[in-house]
Amino acid sequence: MANVWVVRAGERAVYIDEFLKEGIVAIGWDLGPSIIGATKTELERQYRTVEPNATGGKVHNVVGQIDTFLHKMAPADLVLTHDRERRQYIIGKIDGAVGYRGDLPSDLRVARPVKWSRKAHRDNLSPEAKNTLGAIQTVFQIKGAVADEVLAKAVSLDDQEAPLSALIESSARSLEALRTAEQQWPSELLDKAEQAIEDRIVSLSWQEMQELVAGVLRAMGYKTKISHSGPDRGIDIFASPDGLGLQEPRIFVEVKHRPRQTMGSQEIRSFLGGRSEDDRCLYVSTGGFSKDAQYEADRSKIAVRLLTLVDLRELLVDYYEKLDEEIRGLVPLRRVYVLAA
């Protein structure tokens, strides 16, 4: 079977009409006519020139998609694009070489000609196929059972499809299975979102990590003071209601940003040394804690809380709306709504 690709028609399928009218699939990232024939190394250099502030991960992701569109997709390959408003995937065959279309908007200039011929209604696809086709990339390939299913359920562009009620009734998938899938999707989405937030936290520098922890404490109502003498020097943050330590509680914070290193009992004892029984202590470790460390904290006469990466992520989300704008910039989040179970 020919390769099967998905190319999105811009964010929210804003260019779907242009795709169909012009008979093309296209991508943005307009690097000029020299993009045609450029090697992957040259693409990276060109992209870094127009986006000098892009992170390494973003550069790798974008350049990989451009390279796929230019060099891996080929005439006679099949391609899908999502018509979001009509809830269907339009299917066609690539009908020529990639080219630069200076007559089109910048988001459509790197284009491949396509003969559109079929469509597959999203409501007639399995949850697995919907999930795969929901990937966030602009350009990606689908294979195996998902590709087979989409092509098998495709009809001519001229065909009038049955309404949603008929599709559900005639589908081999039962309504109970559909509801089960709907209950799973929010859970899977939440899990992916939580992991993505934790990945972003881990990517922070140790200085940014201290700023993040202090920002969360401020969002909780405390005033904070950060020690900037170096990355490994004892108390990193001091917090109290008045910022002076004259009001209780006085909170002493140690931040260890070592994702691959678990903190042990010795680190906890060292941290608590010199603290009084009236002090409150917080030890943050992105690498987690050993059982001995937890035991050391539990038996301590000084109140101490061990905060893991997961704990920090939960606090960040809970108090996000109250964070300083600069702190929100370290881990930018956006509120979204998903179907309730």
3D architecture notes:
The chain contains 12 helices and 13 strands. The protein has helices at 16-22, 40-50, 56-72, 127-133, 144-152, 164-170, 175-202, 206-219, 265-272, 291-299, 309-318, 325-330; strands spanning 4-7, 24-27, 78-83, 88-94, 99-100, 110-121, 139-142, 155-156, 223-226, 237-240, 251-256, 280-285, 303-307. Helix 2 (40-50) packs across helix 3 (56-72) and helix 9 runs parallel beside helix 10. The longest helix has 28 residues, at 175-202. The protein is elongated and about 80 Å long. The model is unreliable at 162-175 (pLDDT under 50).
Largest sheet: 8 strands, mixed
The rounded Rg comes to: 27 Å
Terminal CA distance reads 38 Å
Task: Give the strand content.
Answer: 15-25%
What structural class do you assign from the helix and strand content?
Answer: alpha+beta
Tell me the number of strands. Answer: 13
CATH level 1 name of the largest domain = Alpha Beta
- Percentage of residues in helical conformation: 25-40%
- Stretches with pLDDT under 50, minimum 5 residues: 162-175
CATH architecture type of the largest domain: Roll
Question: Which geometry do the CA atoms define?
Answer: elongated
The structural domain count equals 2
Question: How many helices?
Answer: 12
Look at the structure and give the mean pLDDT.
86
**CATH domain topology of the largest domain:** ph1033 like fold
Order of H and E elements: EHEHHEEEEHEHEHHHEEEHEHEHH
